[in-house]
Design goal:
By secondary structure, the chain is of the alpha+beta class. The chain is about 50% helix and about 15% strand. The chain contains 3 helices and 2 strands, in the order ααββα. The protein has helices at about 5-20, 30-35, 65-80, and strands spanning about 35-45, 50. The protein has a two-stranded antiparallel sheet with strand order 1-2. The longest helix has 19 residues, at about 5-20. The model has no long low-confidence stretch (mean pLDDT about 80).
Length: about 80
């Protein structure tokens, strides 16, 4: 996953853990969100307690264009 997707997953997971998970045994679990596995809450969309999808919250992937595009844009504006 790209760096901005990882950042969004991490921020969203931490928000839900803080708002709906901490201290509640039957709701959101950040570890299950990031690693997958059996959750304490019932997911109505999937109809299951098992969280199949694992949301990546660390080790983002960077690409040349993540830094290349901003620098090329600034350089092209500076030339004009």
């Amino acid at each position: 996953m790209r760096w901005f997707e990882v950042q969004a997953s991490r921020l969203g997971g931490k928000y839900f853990d803080r708002k709906y998970g901490s201290g509640r045994a039957d709701y959101f679990d950040y570890d299950v969100f990031s690693n997958g596995g059996l959750a304490n809450y019932y997911n109505e969309r999937t109809g299951s307690y098992y969280n199949v999808k694992r949301y990546q919250t660390k080790n983002p992937r960077f690409n040349f264009w993540d830094l290349g595009v901003p620098f090329l844009s600034i350089a092209s504006i500076a030339i004009l």
